[in-house]
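User: Okay, second chain of the day. Same drill as before: sequence in, structure tokens out.
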Amino acid sequence: MTKGASMLQVAVLGLLLAGGLTIPYVATAQPAAVTVSAAPGAFPLIRGGRPARIEADVTDYPGVLRAVQDLRGDLASLSGGAASREAPVVIIGTIGKSAAIDALIAAGKLDVSGVRGQWDGFVQQVVEDPRPGLKQALVIAGADKRGTIYGAYDLSERAGVSPWSWWADAPVIRRAEVFIAPGANVQKPRVRYRGIFLNDENPALYGWANKTFGGFNHAFYERVYELTLRLKGNYLWPAMWGKALYDDDPLSAPLADEMGVILGTSHHEAMMRAHVEWERYGQGRWDYAKNPQVLREFWRAGVERMGANESLVTVGMRGDGDEPMSEGTATKLLETIVADQRKIIGEVTGQDPAKTPQVWALYKEVQDYYDAGMRVPDDVTLLFADDNWGNIRRLPEPGKTRPGGYGVYYHFDYVGGPRNYKWLNTNQIERVWEQMKLAADYGADRLWIVNVGDLKPMELPTEFFLDYAWNPDAIPLDRLPAYTSDWAAAQFGPARAGEIGALLDGYTKLNARRKPELIDGATFSLVHDREAERIEAEWADLERRADAVRAALPGDADAAFFQLVWFPIKASANYNRLQIAVGRNRLYAAQGRVAANGQAALVKTLFDRDAELTRQHDAIKDGKWVHMMDQTHIGYTIWQQPDANILPATQLVTPAAGAVLGVAVEGREATVEAATDLPLIHRYGTQNRWIDVFARGDAPLAFEASSGAAWLQVARGTAGSGGDTRLEVSVDWSKAPKGIHRVPVTIKGAGQVVTVTAVVENPARPPASGAFVEAGGVVVIEAEHHARATSAAGVGWKTIPGLGRTLSGVTSYPSTAPSSLAGQGPSLDYRIDFERAGASDLTVFVSPGLDFRGGKGLTFAVSLNDAPPVVVNTIPDASEAAWNRAVADNVRQLRVPLMIPSAGVHTVKLWRVDPGVVFQRLVLSRQALPESYLGPAESVRR
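Assistant: Same drill. Structure tokens below.
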């Protein structure tokens, strides 16, 4: 049984119960699966609205008894009733700590061969005749403390209680009948340490925790610990912006150990000391070369305070305040630091330091020390990191092992360049899957930890990350698209799960294109590719669908839907609309449009709407989540956040006296004073173009527009409040003559005449079937729309649906296969019908991944027809400026010049060379394309 399967079971169970159906048990049901019928051998977890009775040995771990009590409460909430003395029995216990469990094992009635001695493992098994007088029981046995806890929480989740029932107010849907199928469900994790990092927590989590709990104390952490365990996590880096878990509340650390959560400290906080503790108690400089004795005593106190609490100790050292150490720091000094820290660990614990789990985080410049030859003892886990933007920097060689293993530190939130991203969830689970699959494939599976910022609103990617850490095999590529709908079913039931899953996919894709904090009035083009309108339409569609789902859901689901779906969509849509309005205001002001003033007013309205949405979030559940959306996000000018949201500056236009005609056209920002051309209208390309006619004066504007040819159509739109009217220029292709033609559109008004010439191409030669058609010198192809995908040497291609900025990503698997020789490995073929011979630039859009093997960039190759392939480095420029652009744009664009030998069909090939390259899009152009963020829409394929 897998976690992914668990969510699916919950979805199916909810559907059956919601529909009032009784489905007979079928033999293909998974062992110990949740069912809704009293099939032969099934155990009645809930029957007739009454739950089973839970038994546990009082000698078991206190953390286990906590989880048992939580399970009792969950089943009571699910059933709406209380267990009777005669109720069916669930027996829960830890091997070696529970007499009941040990007796069942000794009697041969409970098979624990699959979990005995397995870290965090558990078995759930329906057992017949477990003891005299009891005909049947559901038995949950853990290999260790956490295994038992996971077994209890897993049952609760599969029965219908979401891990987010408190943290996101996910409703608990009543169930009158729930059964557990016969057989045994055995689970154990792939990744040993699976954790979250609360970070960058001011102002949002900080404000909420202080209001709700009075600070980051044990009451706060009790909720965090429970959630971590319900998600099958086991490791925590606590909040550290001016906070110290051990020092702030002495009860927090013992509680973690009791509940079963392993504590650590972040990548730069060594020896179980929070950085702020140096500010509180440190003496002298944070410099080991000059202040070693004081630092050793500081670290020693951290290990002494840790005591016997289960911990994973960070070793190493960075500069003061999570900054790099002094330039040119010798790796020898850092090796000395680690050696001295391990000596302290050994002295304090009284045992070989190798018996105390340790981790060395290769974060930022520390990776460079590793590359320069710095090494730590083999029992220390090497924690590789991403680049803070979701691109893993390094992984071990396939098959290379060490006793301490390898891990990955990943980010869903970041403070730093090129811009903070802290406000909303901007993480596609498809991207997380692609990167963390690399980690799993390459054996970096000792520790996975992710920076979740404020925790909310990262609910979806956090659960996905921990699910994937528990069992990557449970979420193969063919199951990935169903994850969000399964997750939605687990929160809201199945009736609208498909719709909600699509909303989650939709908003995370749009937000991942470019983090909101990086979007401003100039991001999306207002004059090319109808880009701003496309962005607005995409968000408006998500809003409309979110509103419809919200209206259809029952009232007890509204708070959860608001938090998990509706608010992020509404807030993101509003923010994008706000920034587009800022851009329009500035463009219109430069054009002298009176409508600029309406856009200025709209900016203020949308700015106020942002505050209103935050107020609504503060008000849900009677203020339960007040301050959780306090993060500032409007008004960035540098990488660091503004202290408060800032109303963007706008410009007002003073209208000229009387009626004054203004004209602007697609493809240019300047107004048309007398005459200009429209961009090309092509039968197999862009089908229509726009002309804006607008008022520049204070009197109403009347105008006429006429076409110079009957087959060139000019459709007049509804006039806007500022006097703007959009004219749509299109072609009746059934009547248009072949060839290239120039047709005037004449606009007359207020005593002025402006001529806009439509340039129309209707090719005489029909395009080839099955080929993408070059139109006006441009071809745009989504990477998954290849004509043929060829495998070689056991390596093939897979499409990751939804990944990237436009449609999807295409990459090669297995990822651990050696590099291919250019022209001899797998290839992707794209058939293109070119208009003519001559030069054309191919731009290949790839995900902004890094060379995780330690080289200077992952490569692929390009060829045209049978010509020799040209090798392309995905990181041709390793500068910080180039990296800033790649992560901000969430894509790299690689240009390759091609020479097209003739008009007609030719094949462009992308060749695999290195693993890990993810293709998103191909664009071929004869000349520089107009500036837009996403580029033109995909070309026609006949």
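The mean pLDDT is 95.

User: Thanks, on to the next one.
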